[in-house]
């Protein structure tokens, strides 16, 4: 036992190291066990104190463990080899799938760029078109069109005179008798309206009434149907309107309240006409001249309009104060 203790004292500290090497994705584990010298001595003493039977059993267990360790090491080596092969094959598969995905992405990006360039070109073309339209003066264009028509008319007159034809008569060939008659009636009505200058408000109201009546569109089909229903044959065999039918009635008659109910379209036309008149009245703004006797309490047109708005809302409250200031009796 003493010799064994001396041998243990002379031996260096045992270091048990376990190293496991795996692929790139696995970690390296290092396990180090340091047994102090005193603890080793105690372990040896305990072993020496044990019976021989226990010592033999422990030696057999150690031998069995040593025999099974190579098999485990072989298995672990095989597993490591399989893991290496798997890890080596996975990057190739990922690379191929990534390359396909990248190609698809590049193709999609190329298509998007083409659409973007096409939209840019279309927007630029529309912008140039709008810019060219903004340069066009409508009044100048109308003036040019009028001058062109006058030039064409002068050329046509000259050609007619050279051919010995009447230009005015030749122009009538392009219009029918009905269109010429309507044109003459329109010009006559225009002349009458121009002759009616302002005299009083009654004349203005009558003129407006005639204008509104002229815009009415009577339903001749319904009128003729009612007329046929009211007609009958007299003793002489002639078709006449019955006097008791109320078709022809005087101004004092109220029969239309019961037998002349308007349809929905007529009511809608009336409502639209009333709405049109209301809208025209709201949009009407007569430019009023400046009065000489009006107090000048503004510095420019904008200030004048602002003062007028203030006056419309607050003059009724400040009238007494302003009158006191004018009389000099303000406190």
Automatic annotation (TrEMBL):
One of its GO terms (biological process) is mRNA splicing, via spliceosome. InterPro entries: mRNA_splic_SYF2. Pfam families: SYF2 (PF08231). Residues 16-25 have a biased composition (Basic residues). The keyword Nuclease does not apply. GO terms for cellular component: catalytic step 2 spliceosome; post-mRNA release spliceosomal complex; Prp19 complex. Belongs to the SYF2 family. This is Pre-mRNA-splicing factor SYF2. It comes from Entomortierella chlamydospora.
């Amino acid at each position: 036992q003493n010799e064994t203790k001396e041998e243990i004292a002379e031996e260096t500290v045992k270091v048990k190291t376990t190293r496991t090497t795996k692929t790139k994705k696995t970690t390296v584990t290092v396990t180090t066990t340091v047994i102090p010298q005193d603890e080793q001595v105690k372990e040896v003493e305990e072993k020496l104190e044990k019976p021989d039977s226990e010592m033999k059993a422990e030696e057999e267990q150690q031998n069995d463990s040593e025999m099974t360790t190579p098999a485990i090491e072989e298995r672990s080596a095989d597993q490591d080899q399989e893991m290496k092969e798997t890890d080596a094959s996975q990057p190739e598969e990922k690379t191929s799938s990534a390359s396909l995905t990248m190609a698809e992405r590049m193709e999609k990006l190329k298509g998007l760029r083409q659409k973007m360039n096409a939209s840019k070109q279309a927007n630029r073309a529309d912008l140039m078109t709008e810019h060219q339209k903004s340069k066009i003066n409508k009044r100048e264009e109308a003036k040019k069109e009028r001058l062109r028509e006058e030039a064409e008319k002068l050329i046509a007159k000259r050609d007619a005179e050279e051919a010995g034809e009447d230009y005015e008569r030749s122009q009538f060939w392009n219009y029918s008798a009905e269109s010429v008659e309507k044109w003459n009636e329109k010009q006559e009505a225009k002349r009458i309206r121009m002759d009616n200058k302002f005299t009083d408000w009654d004349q203005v109201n009558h003129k407006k009434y005639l204008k509104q009546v002229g815009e009415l569109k009577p339903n001749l089909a319904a009128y003729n149907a009612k007329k046929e229903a009211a007609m009958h044959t007299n003793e002489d065999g002639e078709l006449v309107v019955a006097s008791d039918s109320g078709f022809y009635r005087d101004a004092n008659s109220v029969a239309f309240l019961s037998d002349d109910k308007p349809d929905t379209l007529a009511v809608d036309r009336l409502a639209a006409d009333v709405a049109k008149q209301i809208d025209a009245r709201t949009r009407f703004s007569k430019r009023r001249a400046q009065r000489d006797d009006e107090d000048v309490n503004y510095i420019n047109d904008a200030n004048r309009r602002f003062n007028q708005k203030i006056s419309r809302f607050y003059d009724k409250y400040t009238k007494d104060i302003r009158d006191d200031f004018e009389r000099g009796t303000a406190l």
